[in-house]
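PROTOCOL LOG
Step 1. Enter all chains and additional molecules of the complex.
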Amino acid sequence: MIGKRAAGGRFTWRARSGSDRVYILCLVVLAIVIACTILAPLIAPYNPNQIFAGPIYQGPSVQHLFGTDGLGRDIFSRVLYGGRFTLLGATLIVGISSTAGLAVATASAWLGGRLDAAVSRALDVLFAFPGLLLAILTVSVFGPGFIAPVLALAVAYMPYMARLTRSVAIRERTKPYIDTCIVQGFSGMWICVRHLVPNLMPFVIVQATVSFGYAIIDLASLSFIGLGIQPPTADWGLMVSDGETGILAHHPEESLFSGLMIVVTVVAFVIAGERRGAVRGRYL
Amino acid sequence: MVRIVAFRLVAAVITLLVASVVVYGAIYVAPGSPLSFLIGGHGATRQVIRQIEAEYHLNDSFPVAYVRWLGNGVHGNFGTSLVQHQSVSSLIEPRLTTTLFLVAYAALLIFVFGIGSGLLAALRPRRVGGAVVLVTTVAMAIPPFVWAVLLTTVFAVDLAWFPAIGNGSGFAGGLYHMTLPAVALAMVWLAYLSRITRAAVDDELGKEYVETARARGIPERYVFRKHVLRNAWIPISTVAGITVAGLIAGDAVIEVAFGLNGIGAYLVQSIEAKDFPVVQAIMMLLVGIFVVVNTLVDVGYAVADPRVRTSERR
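Step 2. Run joint prediction.
Step 3. Record the structure below.
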């Protein structure tokens, strides 16, 4: 195990097994990706929207690390900027859905009885609606862009988060320390906020991390089919789609590099999330 | 047992009703009045306005209009396209065949290779198993549209083994054109099913009754077929059911990626063309299929596993 309490209470950073090394690798990768996205204006060699920064459809070279696309824009700069909406969107989706899911799950588990049963049934109904379709419907009503898909996916992910959290919350609720609080006369609200929720947080974080990966995929898919981020903004999903004409012309750089970024980021999130859950033993 | 089936059916119907309210009510939620939303970018010509009024009855109250729309839908009348001025059902039908072909093809690949590789990995745990787990982990992480791009680059452009775009006509032509799309669509689920299969079979093989059976001298083949497979089948079939439902979501993306003429691609086109009657019809169709498949899986699960039936006494 890595991290705290590894060697008899002392704090150590040494990885003790292969899978620990993979975990650290994932964290490093994520740190790099996030840093690049945030620091894009400082790192990017070219303006991502500047057409004819170089000749079109160039392969990777010293001036253009990832080559250029069909309009001569530098792909490396576009890839750096391209993560912004995707990562921000995924953060919002996961943040909103986990918070709402946590609230619903805690209330439902705490109050129990008929409310809990009703909430379970309602969640089952919501569960049956595939997230991507809901997002597509929302876009058809409100138009493509950033806000509509993000909100729609947040709504779609909420039942999933709520369901997972609820089963954990129910288990926590039956523990003795909760009973002692009740006996001492503390209010339900206080117990939930001060004790229940903090003990649920590790689970929520694990679920949120894994969901982050899927949120990225869903957002990128929406941009890919043209219902998400619109051109000429640089966005990974959109670039994969834009790059298709390039592929047919034997210049797959735009699609491949942006696709690679998506895959690498998603893999890092999913492995990190699952690994953290497995290690901490708090994974359902 | 009957109670469970009835319960699931009721839940399915409720879900469908809720979904239909959402799909229909969308025009009221949209910015602007329902009429202006439906007119969209078509230009408020006499013909368009007359058509909208005839079909949507926007002067009626919401519940009345909704029930009428639902009634029409149940009878197969989905209204008229605002772009093509033809009945929506006539526009959807030919495209539905393409989509069903693609989904069936992908499902076949998923079941055959997913379960196959999972079994193989469980039976030969060392080398083959390790390789399969690694490959499936990577495969699962690559979203369908990235698979589409990868396969197109390698097999359609570089090697030119398969065409990059288009439907193909007839059965053989369809098979040829749809191979890459079907693989791209299937990949993630194939990998997932492979892992589930391997885990389930592996799990079963480690159980005590298997050891007992072997100790008693029962041939391995028999043990495997009669006991291990039967028990491992339960989680596998659950995932298999969910997979087919999940293919629906990925289908639209793949159709757009390969320029296929199916209902997924048509949905996207209709959204961009602001042809809302078509959007509503296709959405209901997709959600309907999704709910039906999920319900069948739930019921099948209850039928196959007696433990579920007894534990339902909550």
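Step 4. Note key features.
The CA atoms of residues 90 and 216 of chain A lie 6 Å apart.
The beta strands of chain A are 3-7, 10-12.
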